[in-house]
């Protein structure tokens, strides 16, 4: 084991592995997930999956804390901005003229409200806490993200060739959306992944010794 690797207590090892595997599943499945038997084919199903995985990850985190008899959370430079933003979301929901929408987000998608924001905050801290100092886990997460982006891009190319043009009312060949449901969302997703793709391409030979990138990570704090 590298000297830079974080030492994991034996009683929490399996739980941390489970949490890391849950993140691999989250990052791999979410962009690809769609279900044609719901009124909103794409985002609703993705968000239900995100909510389910958040519950699973948070529960595993709680179990780990119980096993180790302490609660650890990584400190980052984003702590204050995130807490201020979350506080503003809570206040907005309390004083909203439509609390249902403020709580759950855009109707039919269940995204953009307080619940989704809270889930993202939980996932952020769970990720930085359980991946900090874990170089192998960070590499696996990078590979997972790139693999999903490759599948999404490949399907977009097939869509451009007309593989599913008979399914959609939209002119999907000229405005491909792959598994994301909207051309702008597909573009935003791939643009967000592009820096990781370039990094991986330029560091192919060095990925085996890649340290955990942690400019925003500090050692977890116990309480």
From TrEMBL:
InterPro entries: WaaL-like. The chain crosses the membrane at residues 21-37, 49-66, 78-97, 109-128, 140-158, 185-202. Keywords: Membrane, Transmembrane, Transmembrane helix. PANTHER family: LIPOPOLYSACCHARIDE BIOSYNTHESIS PROTEIN PA4999-RELATED, TEICHURONIC ACID BIOSYNTHESIS PROTEIN TUAE. This is Uncharacterized protein. It comes from Candidatus Collierbacteria bacterium GW2011_GWC2_43_12.
